[in-house]
Write a structure and sequence with these properties.
The protein has about 240 residues and is mainly alpha-helical. The chain has 2 domains: about 25-170, Helix Hairpins (Orthogonal Bundle); about 175-235, no CATH class. It is about 80% helix and about 5% strand. A 3-stranded mixed beta sheet has the order 2-1-3. α1 runs antiparallel to α3. It is rod-shaped, with a radius of gyration of 42 Å. The protein binds zinc ion (ZN).
């Protein structure tokens, strides 16, 4: 029955391979890398928001400048006109128009100041974000490297285990190995086991002493199985 001991060794390696594969998909390094990615994206979103504010405010400043010039030209024209009119009603109307254009001109100045404040605040925010951006990029680079090295380590482990597995399975007859594979589909960690006292190592149910004696008496060509779960039993 040493063949079953060999099979048990194959199963031990198979369990280690599954555990290593599970570890690859549940690495703390992946969680850290994802967090670093999110942190960087958040900062880049804020920078893009600042840029958009600067662009939009600058475009409006250009427009306000143009309007201001138009108003200035208009005021020059109106003031010239005012010097030439004689009729008091006409002069009054012109004065009223001059007052309106002057008020509009002043509102444009206020708006330009306001927009310059927006640009200044956005530029300040951007300069504050710059060092955070640099450090978030470097955190992400380190996290990516840490993840890749952690993965490489486990990949090497898995490669070594697979090699070990193929060496171990060489001594197990192909038909037994395929029965084992079929049993493993239902019970990945318990297709073959040892007894602990009368207890099956796979399903943890007790096997009667009579059945155990019968199994022990089996010829080497027969492979004893747990009457409850069908796991091969290694004595
Ligand atoms: Zn069992």
């Amino acid at each position: 029955m040493t063949v079953l001991s060999d099979l048990l060794a194959v199963q031990t390696t198979d369990i280690e391979i599954s555990q290593a594969k599970h570890r690859v998909t549940h690495l703390q390094e992946t969680i850290d890398r994802d967090a670093a990615k999110r942190a960087l994206a958040e900062i880049e979103t804020q920078i893009a928001h600042c840029d958009a504010e600067v662009t939009s405010a600058s475009a409006e400043i250009t427009k306000v400048d143009r309007l201001s010039h138009e108003h200035d030209d208009k005021l020059v024209k109106l003031n010239k006109q005012l010097k030439t009119v004689i009729a008091p009603r006409e002069a009054e109307a012109l004065q009223h128009e001059i007052a309106t254009v002057t008020a509009e001109r002043s509102a444009l100045d206020d708006r330009e100041l306001e927009l310059m404040g927006v640009v200044e605040a956005a530029e300040l925010k951007k300069s504050e974000l710059a060092p955070l951006h640099v450090s978030a990029k470097s955190v992400l680079a380190s996290a990516t490297m840490a993840l890749s090295s952690a993965k490489q380590k486990i990949d090497a482990e898995i490669a070594a285990l697979l090699e070990q597995r193929s060496a171990q399975s060489l001594v197990v007859p192909a038909s037994l190995l395929s029965t084992y594979e079929a049993k493993r589909k239902h019970r990945p960690d318990g297709a073959v086991c040892k007894l602990t006292g009368p207890t099956c190592g796979s399903c943890h149910l007790d096997i009667s002493q009579g059945e155990i004696n019968a199994m022990r008496a089996m010829p080497d060509s027969d492979f004893p199985e747990c009457p409850h779960c069908g796991s091969f039993i290694v004595f």
